[in-house]
Amino acid sequence: MTISIETQTVVGAHPLDPLSRAEITRAVAILKNGPAAAETFRFISVELREPSKHALRAGSETEREADSVLIDRGTGNAFEAIVNLDAGIVSKWTQLASGVQPPFMLDEFAECEINCKKDPRVVEALAARGLTNLDLVCFEPWSVGWFGEDAQGRRLMRALVFVRQDPDDSPYAHPIENFVVIYDLSSGTVARVEDAEAIPVPAAAGNYLPKYVGPARTDLKPISITQPEGASYTVTGNHVQWADWSFRVGFTPREGLVLHQLKFRNKGTDRSVINRASLAEMVVPYGDPAPVQAKKNAFDSGEYNIGNMANSLKLGCDCLGEIKYFDGITTDSHGNPMTIENAICMHEEDDSIMWKHFDFREGTAEVRRSRKLVISFIATVANYEYAFYWHLFLDGSIEFLVKATGILSTAAQNPGEKTPYGQALNNDGLYGPIHQHLFNVRMDFEVDGPLNSVYEVDTETPADNPTFTAFRAVDRLLETEQAAIRKADSSKHRFWKVANRDSKNLVNESVAYRLIPTNAITLAADERSHVSQRAQFARNNLWVTAYDRAERFPAGEFPNQSTGGDGLPAWTLADRNIVDQDLVVWYTFGMHHVVRLEDWPVMPRQNIGFMLEPHGFFDENPTLNLPTSEEIATNTGTCCSGH
Ligand code: ABN
Ligand code: CU
């Protein structure tokens, strides 16, 4: 079969712009015309292969290339391809090692549920538990992960099962405990039904829809955000300029939102801060040793491609104000471009005060308001929602914030029992097992240029301390990758500083940004657990690696069904020098989720995040030029970038 290949590439695209629909179509056609000709090929992802940053820095001509991951459903083999869109060729085609399982595709979720419902063993086992209306039964396909069993090259899902009481009822109130279906995507059949001790399905409902919870309160007056003169950002394609900040917006199926080339304008110069920043991995391990619960650990990003799960955001609900939306373009499993409209939202928010001083001698006050630019996306990963926000502030600080919401992944115990490994949510046997949400953000820092170093800064009391009042911050240079595998330590008020030792500030110190390690949790599971082997990135809060463009994801390129050791633990074995190097900082943080009654039936958002702050990057407070609120109200829009 010959497939016509669109010859047109997009003229004028920036080298870091995500692939357009036309480019995806062309890449897929080139692959289908070449090594992926068989009907059995499915496309896990087709995304921009970012040009080398050295080429970008040098301003060299770069080619438009696509990275694609594919799976041949005929053989079960997985492949990686590089497609050169300018030359119209597949420039690299690599079969992945047997057992490597790329992330799941969206239609595999649907397939699992449909085929589970058709399988006579499943139907019979459910009937034996008194469940005969399959329309109300929900199969929730998690990855099987890895628990020491050889999957023999099979691509396997582990479907937890829940039942609704009516079509709008929340299934998570009614888990069918000790009932799991292992579904084999390689053969398209149920591999086995794991049907152990039946526990009565909790009957009490746990609904949040208005039709169940009754009328909403009526005492809240509208908050209207108006920006009569529009927002203060300028968007050109995917390039954003806002106050002193500039950056490019990217989007990938694996990471969702990506920030590129983040710079801050200071004294007329755009100074680089971070070359590339994104959520690089997540893991949600459960601490309950009950047989079904002990096998729950979701690598929501690496197993399911969290960018593919991005919501189309709605004005007035997800984001408020003068919004600029960016679409996220990804693919369905046949390689058709799929546009997630309004996947990324960008807007300005008032942020209370930036600085103030009341001169009590004169009785006068100077106060300036802070505002932040918010760039965000929200992903639904089955039961949970994760809303990811980058906040840029006028003083050069940066926040990464995750709002975790959605619905607990629940379990059932016999009525009257109370497991110590979870929180009873009602008196009907429903409970929320204890678990963690661990995130890892990859930050390719370029503080005033690519060559940076990282210091650990602890506050210490000196040995010579006659007044007993002395304490001071002590910098310790982290010289190699092994030395830079660190944990936060609040007893030492620890933070980390990314410095450029060739760029000095007013007082001849290296300019730097600091990472404030808030929400600095690590894996609670024993080191000998399978999840701890597979998610080693989450055993420590800080990792620093020498830059290598192939090193993208901290649990490895393909964590689905991985057996562990890939990613950060493997790369850092080389123990490369990280002093005055092009380096990448990886920060693990998260939420230790000791479930509470208030998390049910839908969880009020929990905020989890960290700050990056300039630390001697500027010579003084960079917001002295902020106008007063009165001045902003009369601003003609002609003033004042940099000072
Ligand atoms: N939130 C865990 C999860 C992810 C994907 C599919 C099922 C469950
Ligand atoms: Cu949780």
Which helices and strands appear, and what pairs or packs with what?
Elements lengths: L20 H13 L7 E8 L4 H6 L6 E8 L5 E7 L4 E7 L10 H13 L1 H9 L8 E7 L12 E8 L11 E10 L4 E7 L14 H4 L19 E4 L2 E4 L2 E8 L3 E11 L2 E17 L11 E2 L25 E8 L5 E23 L4 E18 L2 E10 L4 E9 L4 E2 L9 E3 L5 E4 L1 E11 L5 E10 L11 E7 L16 E10 L5 E7 L13 H5 L7 E5 L21 H4 L9 E13 L9 E12 L14 H5 L10
Antiparallel strand pairs: 1-2, 2-3, 3-4, 5-6, 6-7, 7-8, 9-10, 10-11, 11-12, 12-13, 13-14, 13-23, 15-16, 16-17, 17-18, 18-19, 19-30, 20-22, 21-22, 23-29, 24-25, 24-26, 24-29, 26-27, 27-30, 28-29
The chain binds benzylamine and copper (II) ion.
Benzylamine (ABN) binds next to strand 5.
Q: What's the average pLDDT?
A: 96
Give the structural class. Answer: mainly beta
The molecules bound to the chains, other than polymers, are: benzylamine, copper (II) ion
CATH-level-2 architecture of the largest domain: Distorted Sandwich
Tell me the domain tally.
Answer: 3
The rough form would be described as globular
Q: How many DSSP H or I helices?
A: 8
Please, could you describe this protein's structure?
The structure is a single chain. The protein is mainly beta. The protein folds into 3 domains: 21-92, Nuclear Transport Factor 2, Chain: A; 106-213, Roll (Nuclear Transport Factor 2, Chain: A); 234-632, Beta-galactosidase, Chain A, domain 5. The chain is built from 8 helices and 30 strands. The strands form 4 sheets. The protein has a 19-stranded antiparallel β-sheet that branches. Strands 1-2-3-4 form a 4-stranded antiparallel β-sheet, with helices on one face. A hairpin with a 3-residue loop joins β11 and β12 (256-266). The longest helix is centred in the N-terminal third of the chain and has 13 residues, at 21-33. The radius of gyration is 26 Å and the shape is globular. Mean pLDDT is 96; it is low at 1-10 and 638-643. Bound molecules: benzylamine (ABN) and copper (II) ion (CU). Copper (II) ion (CU) is lined by residues 435, 437, 593. Benzylamine is lined by residues 140-142, 298, 300, 304, 381-384.
